Amino acid sequence: MGKMQQSAKNGILGKIRSFKEFNVLMVTIILIIGISIKSPIFLSATNIRTTLIGLACNGIIAIGMTLALVSGGFDLSVGAIMGLSACLTVVFAGMGLNVWFAAILALIVCIGVGLLTGTLIGRVGLNPFITTLGIQQIARGAVFVLTAGSSLSLPAGADISSFKKLGQSSILGIPIIVVIFIIMAVLGDFLVKKSSAAMKVFYIGSNEKAAILSGINAKKVKQMVYIITATLAAVAGILTSARFGVATSNTGAGSEMTVISAAVIGGASLTGGKGTILGAVVGVIMLSVISNALVLFNVDVNWQSLISGAILILAILFDLLSHKRKYKA
């Protein structure tokens, strides 16, 4: 009887440990415990709420970034597209349009940017790094032109008040922006694991030539991946404009590095063919916990940037070493 119980226990623990996100989740839990001991404020309701709201937009973008990494590419333009979306929402609303319609127009424009990116990478065959870096500069440049390097505020109005509730109100005590993130993450994780379209992304990332020979339209799949990344970045931008009521020239700046780090920490590979939405979400939570701790401990902002960069390098190094071990095996 004892052996059966031990076997069952080992089986349960084995299944838990088999989850790709297990190690990252455990590290995150340990960090939370350690930080909460050092700073009692960390687990206060106000701080938890602020942290969750802060990570929601990066979490939404991380969903798309995971798909881009799985396909064998990545997207450096997501932060700029987030900023462009927020900026266009405010600009269109300032022109007298209903803010909800303004947000839809901003979304359409950013989807168009994603279509351009996807066409250049998927159809034309340009390098993802150079292409998305160029799109990043174009989008960020457009933001600077529209904002004149400053900030723009949403005008007053009844529709504006209802729009701001999207980023500032709660449902059953949970911020709406967090609820949207959770729904998108759960739906995204389900579709990635169950849909045949997502499987094609994995096949292409693992072995593009074999995928093409099996009848998969790699060009079309890659194009759709970058449309999705741009769309999710645009949604994050719209939610940001609803949360703050303003759009600045720096909105979304640096988000691309955060979400790439989160996705890689969560198990996505820079060589393609590997990654999960749940892993990226756990990665975003871990990075947000670290970022929040640095603020609570009054760490100089310059050191915060240094630490963030070091985390990205370590994540890439870990991915490289894991890939080499797998290759040798």
UniProtKB/TrEMBL annotation:
CDD domains in UniProt: TM_PBP1_transp_AraH_like
Keyword flag Zinc: no
Transmembrane segments: 21-42, 48-69, 76-94, 100-126, 138-158, 170-192, 224-246, 277-297, 303-321
Keyword ATP-binding: no
GO CC aspect terms: plasma membrane
Membrane topology of this protein: Multi-pass membrane protein
Subcellular location field: Cell membrane
Keywords: Cell inner membrane, Cell membrane, Membrane, Transmembrane, Transmembrane helix, Transport
Listed GO MF terms: transmembrane transporter activity
Alphabetized Pfam families for the sequence: BPD_transp_2
InterPro entries documented for this protein: ABC_transp_permease
PANTHER family on file: ABC TRANSPORTER PERMEASE PROTEIN YPHD-RELATED-RELATED, AUTOINDUCER 2 IMPORT SYSTEM PERMEASE PROTEIN LSRD
This protein's name: Autoinducer 2 import system permease protein LsrD
